[in-house]
Amino acid sequence: MYRFILDYEYRSISAELPLPPKAMTTKLGGKNVTLDLVNSGEISVIKDIGLRDISFQVLLPKDDNVVGAMAGEFHEPIYFLSLFRNIMADKKPVRLIILRDLPNGTSIFNGDISLSLESYVVTENGGEEGDFYVDLNFKEYRSLESTEAVITGGEVKEETTREVKETAKTYVVKQGDCLWAIAKSELGSGEKYTELASLNNLSYPYTLSVGQTIKLQ
User: For a tag site, which of 83, 118, 120, 171 has the least CB within 10 Å?
Assistant: First the structure.
């Protein structure tokens, strides 16, 4: 079972798509350059790998009476349509969390990537009033890390400034939270959500309630 979660930290929103996309396309290209030199012809210059382009179509149903809908909190289409618009208007990245769960509860190759929403197209079909199909196009997001100059022995070096976060002992579940997102924000890795499930005696599929206290250690 696939689960797609949009974690938009800028507005403190973490929302699971009501239905997983039927397919997702990831395009990865290079930035290689071809030059035409006088008297030498064409040569190729191989450059660093480019950013990933990710696209998929999601169905936003008008109600939760849909086969295959996720067990999490249901949101009407307008909720997600407003979220998509705000992401583009705010000019902020969003995290796409993909959970790939097998029937026995085992997770494989989970994903967590920061993306910029490049464009989206909304389609309504006759006879399906209230349902919206949205084609989403994302690009991998990479930010410039904060650096500061440090003088050591007359030599100037750049050091990356990182904020050290002290792990709390408990976490109170907010609306839109999922165990993966909690593990990512509080423990530094979404992959540790199985440890949280075991620590808190949560059974698959780890259903959470608003106000519930989760032990982190």
Answer: 118
**What does the alpha-carbon distance between residue 73 and residue 175 come to, in Å, rounded to a whole number?**
9
Q: Does the N-terminal peptide bond of residue 205 adopt cis geometry, omega within 30 degrees of 0?
A: yes
Q: Is the pTM of this model over 0.85?
A: no
User: Which helix or strand (DSSP H or E) is residue 117 part of?
Assistant: strand 111-123
Token pair belonging to 14: 């973490």
- The span from the CA of 171 to the CA of 209, in Å, is 12
101: DSSP letter: B
Nearest-CA neighbor of 120 among 80, 90, 92?
Answer: 80
Q: Give backbone dihedrals phi and psi of 65, rounded to 5 degrees, phi first.
A: -90, 60
**CA-to-CA distance for 183 and 177, rounded, in angstroms?**
10
Average pLDDT, the chain: 81
**What's the pLDDT tens digit per position in 52-70?**
999 999 999 998 776 555 5
Phi/psi at 163 (nearest 5 deg)? -85, 125
CA distance 216 to 171: 7
Q: Which of 132, 205, 146, 208 is nearest to 176 (CA)?
A: 208
> How big is the chain, counted in residues?
217
Q: Which amino acid, one-letter code, is at 111?
A: G
Note whether 132 and 123 are within 8 A (CB): yes
**Phi-psi domain of 111 (left: phi exceeds 0; alpha: psi -120 through 50; beta: other):** beta
